[in-house]
Amino acid sequence: MISAPMEGSIVFLDSGVGGLPYLERSRRLLPGRELHYIADDAGFPYGTKKPSQIEDILLDRTRRLRARLHPRVLVIACNTASQAGLSALRKANPDLEIVGTVPAIKPAAASTKSGRIAVLATERTVADPYLDDLIARYASDVEVIKLPAQPLVSFVERSFLGSTASERRTAVMPYLLPLLEAGVDRIVLACTHFLHLEPDFSSACETAGAWEVEIVDSLEGVANRLHSLCSADSAPLVARATCSSPHSGRFFLTSEGPADPAYTAWAERFGLSGPEAL
């Protein structure tokens, strides 16, 4: 069914479910906006692809979502995608406000007491010169350990729902232990999928007695940027009375055929209707 245009909405795009925490946090600052989510399951995962492949995927998905949803703002809720394709997306869509996600190197470096921080990311993000540039600009006076944790992306996408605390602890410990042994006191989650595991990272740090370690992400930065954009926006907010629930919004997938039932559970978990095909 073809839906009516929804000018004024905000659309979050990620390779899968990683960007959902960004949508959730943004709701607190933008309660009157329609916030929609696209999980690019047809393109999942981004972290193992070449930058040119990611760029092509993003250009295609953006054309499709603009035709369907007519958003006011597009959030690329994925560090890997932001690094690989944000510049090309903005060039191809000069009339659309596009917000990317950037690894929170700056606040981590500014707050470290030990002078050592770590960045957990996908294989592509760790290898991208963009990350080295961020480190050079904002963390040149501290030691930065870069650690790829690609398997955690698939764990969150495929196994997180229904997992036990013990299973999640088992998933994060191979990445956390070497960082604790190295003496880091800030761990930057530079992949949006990892934010679903933030409580598990924090709990494991406490269990290990590493009370000084803080987990750092870009949630507040992205939400504040959206709030700033929309505060000066002349586009009308969606009236609360027209929203089907306080968490009104829709969940889309990019693949054809029957949806994985897990995505229905993810949509319900974050108060979204769907999933439906983009």
Task: Name the shape in a single word.
Answer: globular
Q: How many strands? A: 10
Whole-number radius of gyration? 18 Å
Structure annotation, total helices: 11
> Which stretches of 5+ consecutive residues score pLDDT under 50?
1-6, 234-246
Amino- and carboxy-terminal Cα gap: 11 Å
Q: Give the rounded overall mean pLDDT.
A: 90
Portion in strands: 15-25%
**What fraction, in percent, of the residue positions are helical?**
40-55%
Strand arrangement within the widest β-sheet reads 4-3-1-2-9-10
List keywords for this structure.
278 residues, six-stranded parallel sheet, disordered N terminus, four-stranded parallel sheet, alpha/beta, 10 strands, 11 helices
Short summary:
The protein is α/β, with parallel strands linked by helices and 278 residues long. It has helices spanning 20-29, 51-69, 79-92, 105-111, 123-127, 129-138, 150-159, 165-181, 198-207, 219-231, 261-269, and strands at residues 10-14, 35-39, 73-76, 97-100, 116-121, 143-148, 186-189, 214-216, 250-253, 273-277.
What topology emerges from the helices and strands here?
Layout (H helix, E strand, L loop, with lengths): L9 E5 L5 H10 L5 E5 L11 H19 L3 E4 L2 H14 L4 E4 L4 H7 L4 E6 L1 H5 L1 H10 L4 E6 L1 H10 L5 H17 L4 E4 L8 H10 L6 E3 L2 H13 L18 E4 L7 H9 L3 E5 L1
Parallel strand pairs: 1-2, 1-3, 2-9, 3-4, 5-6, 5-7, 7-8, 9-10
